[in-house]
């Protein structure tokens, strides 16, 4: 039998090509994700988070400080969570665009971003003294 009759279309080669394309799509998606930024504004507090969800920028208006320290801390935490949720939405949308809405990759991103970000607690002065 002449092996050239398959001309690169053996089942093994087709599967390998499919896997290579998947890997290339995943690497391209990961590169694009690194550029994402979540943003939010809550009561005079503006926050920007990186692709990992870490805070990379905060601005606070003078008016946001009028309610005192605890109110400001709450507004900052609310803005951080809102920016992280904005990021989660961007991650989900980009995974759907890259891999398809019903893909395992998009489902994984949906599940992980759905549980990843939660609001931090405000430390009381007693808790702060114990550190």
Summarize this structure briefly.
This protein is of the alpha+beta class. Helix content is 55%, strand content 12%.
Question: How would you characterize this protein structure?
Answer:
There is one protein chain. This protein is 55% helix and 12% strand. It is of the alpha+beta class. It has one domain (8-124). It has a 3-stranded antiparallel β-sheet with strand order 1-2-3, with helices on one face. A hairpin with a 5-residue loop joins β2 (45-49) and β3. The protein is elongated and about 85 Å long. It starts with 10 loop residues before the first helix and ends with a helix. The mean pLDDT is 89.
Q: How many domains?
A: 1
**Residue runs with pLDDT of under 50 for 5 or more positions:** none
Structural class: alpha+beta
Number of strands: 3
Span of the ends, CA to CA: 76 Å
Which radius of gyration do the C-alpha atoms yield?
23 Å
State the order of secondary-structure elements, H for helix, E for strand: HEEEHHH
Give the amount of beta strand, in percent: 5-15%
Biggest sheet record: 3 strands, antiparallel
Fraction of residues in H or I helices: 40-55%
């Amino acid at each position: 039998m002449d092996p050239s009759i398959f001309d690169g279309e053996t089942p093994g080669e087709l599967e390998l090509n499919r896997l290579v394309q998947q890997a290339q799509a995943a690497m391209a998606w990961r590169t694009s994700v690194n550029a994402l930024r979540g943003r939010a504004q809550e009561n005079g507090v503006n926050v920007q988070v990186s692709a990992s969800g870490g805070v990379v920028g905060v601005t606070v208006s003078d008016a946001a400080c009028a309610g005192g320290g605890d109110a400001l801390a709450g507004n900052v935490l609310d803005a951080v969570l809102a920016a992280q949720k904005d990021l989660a939405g961007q991650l989900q949308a980009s995974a759907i665009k890259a891999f398809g809405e019903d893909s395992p990759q998009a489902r994984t991103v949906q599940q992980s971003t759905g549980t990843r970000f939660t609001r931090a607690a405000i430390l009381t002065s007693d808790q702060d003294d114990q550190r």
